[in-house]
Design a protein that fits this description.
Keywords: ATP-binding, Cell inner membrane, Cell membrane, Ion transport, Iron, Iron transport, Membrane, Nucleotide-binding, Translocase, Transport. GO terms for molecular function: ABC-type ferric iron transporter activity; ATP binding; ATP hydrolysis activity. Residues 12-243 form the ABC transporter domain. This protein is an alpha+beta fold. The protein folds into 2 domains: 12-88 and 161-241, Rossmann fold; 245-361, OB fold (Dihydrolipoamide Acetyltransferase, E2P), CATH 2.40.50.140. The protein is 22% helix and 34% strand. It has a 6-stranded mixed sheet, sandwiched between helices. Strand 4 and strand 5 (73-76) form a beta hairpin. Helix 3 (116-129) packs across helix 4 and helix 4 (145-157) runs parallel beside helix 5. The chain is globular. Mean pLDDT is 89; it is low at 1-5 and 292-301.
Amino acid sequence: MVSDTSPLQPRLEIRNLVRSFGGLRVVDDVSLSIMPGQVTCLLGPSGCGKSTTLRMIAGIEKQDAGSIWADGALVCDGVFRVPPEGRATGLMFQDFALFPHLSVAGNVAYGLSGRASKTRGRVQELLERVGMSAHIDRYPHELSGGEQQRVALARALAPRPKIMLMDEPFSGLDDRLRDDIRDETLEVLKAEGTAVLLVTHEPGEAMRMADEIALMRDGKIVQMGAPYNIYNTPVDKEAAGFFSDINTVPAHVHGALAATQFGQFLVPGVADGTAVDIVIRPQHLKIDFDRAGKGPNATIADGTPARGTVKRARFMGIESLVEFTLDDGSQMKAVIPSVFLPKKGTVLWLMIRRDKCFIFPRSA
């Protein structure tokens, strides 16, 4: 089958993938495309279908419906199927799975074919790229976790795969090393023009690595977009809460307005009586220091301050997290830059930034 490798052609495209186990759809009509040099993260909680999607693309798992394409050429559908070894796809997992009896050079060369001199050149080139050329003759048990990760990356890149599939590959590394390895990995993959599909359950990792995030829940992609857009325009309350802590203010709509202890919120186009949740992230819940101890003094611009009693305050390193109990018994969190540790029982007035709120119909 002839492929179209024009600049606008996705390197990887999956269309309407479905996979069920025991009558339960674990992947439900999933579609996405990835361009050369692009990193897309499949992000979601454990059990949402991320890894099953990855295994279907790799050919380890067979889909019940849908199709997979690489550079415009069909890889598999309900009838046609390229075997896993023929898919020009690299795989990286949390378990690096290096061969213990092979040296670093032997691990990287595994899967390469051709003259020994040409193979050796490719191995040396990749090890230099990942900063491991000095360890070419060492064995896996002689390497640290980060060094093994670099060797695993070089091995996965050695056959020049068009597509790289990565399933939580950095979760076994400590935080500081993880950041360095992630950045180095991205640099190498983008330089190779590889389309990358990375599976993770960590929003921070997805935000740091991805050009595009596909947020999965219950087997479906519920939202897809650039990290900035998906964070700042979540599709629903659950999507907002997946990326950070959230505060929720429940309300009902009457006359396009939702009345709360923070004042009224405009909710145009929503039917009267609809239950809604007003969602605000802790960093956008503001303490009104000018009114501290003086009581509310509402203005049209900022709504009504609500009284909160400090329940707990903790310093988190570069910011402080303060938890409040409001007069109606609800709990809210505020993140304050720098050090702010009011005593338990202190009464403060809280404000909501209207431009940072999300308003969603309440889930059943």
